[in-house]
Design a protein that fits this description.
The complex is a heterodimer of chains A (276) and B (311).
Chain A (H helix, E strand, L loop, with lengths): L1 H9 L4 H30 L3 H4 L9 H12 L3 H9 L4 H6 L1 H5 L6 H35 L4 E4 L4 E4 L5 H26 L6 H19 L3 H4 L6 H5 L12 H28 L5
Antiparallel strand pairs in A: 1-2
Helix pairs in contact in A: 1-8, 2-4, 2-8, 4-8, 5-8, 5-9, 5-10, 8-9, 8-13, 9-10, 9-13
Chain B lengths: L2 E12 L2 E12 L3 E5 L6 H8 L7 E6 L2 E2 L4 H6 L1 E4 L11 H10 L7 H10 L15 H13 L5 E5 L7 H17 L3 E6 L2 H7 L2 E6 L2 E7 H4 L5 E7 L5 H7 L4 E5 L5 E6 L4 H10 L4 E6 L3 H17 L2
Parallel strand pairs in B: 3-8, 3-9, 6-7, 7-8
Antiparallel strand pairs in B: 1-2, 1-4, 4-5, 9-10, 11-13, 11-14, 12-13
Helix pairs in contact in B: 4-5
The chains are: A mainly alpha (276), B alpha/beta (311).
Chain lengths: 276, 311
């Protein structure tokens, strides 16, 4: 059943839009850094050069990948919503939901398969990002020690100390995307066309991301409970030392959200009258 | 007779509106069972409840004697269905669609069976075309192929001739006859057109406003020598029993409301019936001849159209 679901997803042209967008944005960032990266680095390092003697390949593939991830990991959830928001609502819209449910498949099983397929798609997006982001950046810019330019500090990460950080960051991003997929599939159960769930997911992610980033006391109280606050915890892997406690807390919050969305989807879908 | 489908007191309310109201009927193995009613009578809602797409407010559906709700998977293995439009994955070919739904049927289906049903529904040579290039008639036939591919005992076809041209309707009719008569399938077919049902069905049920009006063998119900009489009386609890025991025609159903009886009898017997009712102190308000079931059904349809036109 999962194979059939993936077959359906990957036979649709719209599935590949996300890959195209991501590739295009990555290329643009890489091109911009290739053309004008040195001025970017010298601007970012202003003031630091006066106190420290910095030499070597600072504008390397690891730094460029970090910049790509910072730009794209906010937007990938929107691309995940494009497919995950469609998995149930799209069937309702096409009228194929009633045909599917006249076959001896359980509704819970169908939700499970739809969610797994969305997750597979999200993981594939991340793998593709790793290939075009990390792989191509390393090919174009080479490797070297990476400087993580934070607003309040510069963290120097040694060249041999980076790949495992990226591996864990991608693994964490996969969990974040699993949360987005769970939200989108949940909204998808209510819709009889894909537009509502897709826009709904995107809207929720955008609004909650704004709440997570606003430094207003009122929002500070709710921030720890928003999944969007925890979705960016991957950045912790590029700190020294890595804040494992905070990261594990974020993992726990995201897992709770996934379980909640998933269980809610199953309950609603099992009770739903299929009238489309 | 062994019943493949038994519907008992099925009710579905959307808010306070009863789309289907206390409906009971049963379908014998091997029957082509027509399910007739004007648009909005509750046919599709009933079919969706039989298939588990809509949860009933009350009542139960039994498939081969087992409650559908507790044996959904097993029941659906024995059913093939088209509900309303035959919608499929338009961006895939007919073959891919057939393959997908065949795999979902929980049976090992060889590709020879796929070829067999494609040939049966007359899509040979076009099976690798994308569904978006198909006409409505071709989609209907593919829908039947999908419903048939796992060789179910029961076929449920909801308005299968909708949107077809006259030739398509004739072909569909022939296909349904083949399925029922030659292949031994039990077919449960809905329509809002009496002549459609009349031409293919062995038995039929007419519903109106979610309630059963008439049920029986098509040959009996459409017997030209008998007439349907609508008898409007003040409510009387014992009269039905008396009419039945005295052999006053065949009681068909209570129509519209509880004080309207439908009786089928030879027109010559009508004056005697009137006399009998008066003797039994039943207050007769009106006796109307409907001439035939067709006329009666037409009057239901017209009544609905008139209601729809009244704002």
């Amino acid at each position: 059943m999962l194979r059939l679901e993936l077959y359906k997803i990957f036979r649709r042209p719209r599935t590949y839009i996300s890959f195209l967008i991501m590739t295009a944005v990555t290329f643009l960032i890489q091109l911009a850094m290739y053309v004008d990266g040195k001025s970017f680095v010298s601007f970012a390092m202003q003031g630091v050069g006066e106190q420290f003697d910095i030499s070597g390949n600072i504008l390397n593939g690891y730094l460029v990948t970090y910049l790509v991830l910072q730009s794209l990991l906010i937007h990938i959830p929107l691309l995940v919503a494009l497919v995950a928001g469609d998995v149930l609502a799209g069937e309702a819209n096409m009228g194929t939901m009633r045909l599917l449910l006249t076959k001896p498949v359980s509704r819970t099983g169908l939700v499970l398969v739809k969610y797994t397929a969305s997750l597979f798609y999200a993981l594939l997006l991340l793998v593709w990002l790793a290939i075009v982001g990390l792989g191509l950046s390393v090919l174009l810019f080479g490797t070297g020690d990476m400087i993580n330019m934070k607003s309040d500090a510069f963290i120097m990460l040694l060249k041999d100390d980076i790949i495992w950080r990226y591996s864990l960051a991608f693994a964490f991003a996969a969990l974040a995307m699993a949360t987005v997929a769970a939200l989108s599939v949940f909204l998808s159960v209510f819709g009889d066309n894909s537009i509502g769930p897709i826009i709904g997911s995107m809207g929720i992610i955008v609004v909650l991301t704004i709440f997570s980033n606003l430094e207003i006391p009122l929002f500070n109280a709710i921030k720890p409970y928003l999944f969007t606050t925890h979705m960016v915890a991957w950045k912790g892997f590029f700190d020294a030392p890595v804040p494992y406690d905070a990261i594990m807390q974020s993992v726990a919050v995201l897992v709770v959200y996934i379980v909640l969305f998933f269980v809610a989807t199953i309950i609603v879908f099992n009770k739903k009258d299929i009238q489309s | 007779m062994e019943h493949i489908v038994a519907v008992q007191g099925l009710t579905k309310k959307f808010g306070n509106f009863p789309a289907v109201d206390d409906l009971s009927f049963s379908i014998g193995r091997g029957e082509i069972y027509g399910f007739l009613g004007p648009n909005g009578a509750g046919k599709s809602t009933t079919i969706r409840m039989v298939l588990g797409l809509i949860h009933p407010t009350a009542g139960e559906v039994l498939i081969n004697g087992e409650p559908f709700r507790r044996n959904r998977k097993k029941a659906l293995q024995q059913i093939g269905a088209i509900v309303e439009r035959p919608d499929m994955y338009r961006y895939l070919s007919a073959w891919d669609n057939l393959k997908i739904f065949a795999r979902l049927s929980c049976k090992q289906i060889p590709s020879s069976r796929l070829h067999e049903v494609i040939e049966l529904v007359g899509l040979k040579g076009r099976e690798h075309d994308k569904v978006k290039a198909y006409s409505q008639g071709m989609k209907q036939r593919l829908g039947i192929a999908i419903a048939l591919v796992h060789d179910p005992e029961l076929l449920i076809l909801d308005e299968p001739t909708n949107g077809l041209d006259p030739q398509g309707i004739a072909e569909m009719r022939e296909l349904i006859r083949t399925l029922g008569t030659h292949m031994g399938k039990t077919v449960f077919i809905s329509s809002h057109l009496l002549h459609e049902i009349e031409q293919v069905a062995t038995n039929m049920l007419i519903i109106h406003k979610g309630r059963k009006v008439v049920e029986g063998k098509v040959s009996d119900l459409l017997n030209p020598n008998e007439t349907i009489f609508e008898v409007r009386i003040l409510p009387d609890d014992s009269i039905l029993e008396k009419l039945e025991s005295k052999g006053w025609g065949e009681y068909i159903a209570e129509g519209g409301n509880s004080s309207t009886l439908l009786l089928r009898m030879h027109p010559r017997k009508m004056p005697g019936l009137n006399k009998y009712l008066v003797e039994e102190k039943v207050h007769v308000l009106e006796i109307r001849s409907k001439h035939s079931l067709e006329e009666y059904f037409l009057s239901l349809t017209n009544e609905d159209n008139a209601e729809a036109g009244t704002v």
